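REQUEST
  id: r-88c1
  op: predict_structure
  target: Lipoprotein
  payload:
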Amino acid sequence: MGKRLLYLVFVIVLVSCGTKVSKNPESLIKEVELYSAKIDSDKALETDIIEGALTDTEGFEDIGKFKYTVFFNKETNELLKIKNLETTNKTITENYYFKNNKLSYFDSHSENSKPKKIFIYNGKVVSTESVSAEEQKLFIAKAKRFQKAFNETH
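RESPONSE
  id: r-88c1
  status: 200
  body:
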């Protein structure tokens, strides 16, 4: 009886602590890209547009304008994408994609610079392109501010 119990415990430990299959970064990136393409092609999403002036750091002088569009599922009220357009002496377009209430993908394009991309899976950065560590923190924090503003108004 004691050997059977010991064997049973050994099998349970082996199964519960066994190696977990993790996805490689390439497949995670592909999954994120497919998800963002699906959101971009979904014409049934509800949108809200918010526009305003960009000011200097003191908040006194207008230095440009912004316009961001929020894409969400009207039935579930789930935030899926935010497209942010900032115009100063150059135009910057940022796209934030959300999945399960978390940022899953970010891309940014501006004139005469390489596109910036951040791929995130289950809250963890999987890969980046042309993004410094400081920019990564900035863009993720910006996504959280956008998400908070959405949650407060919807």
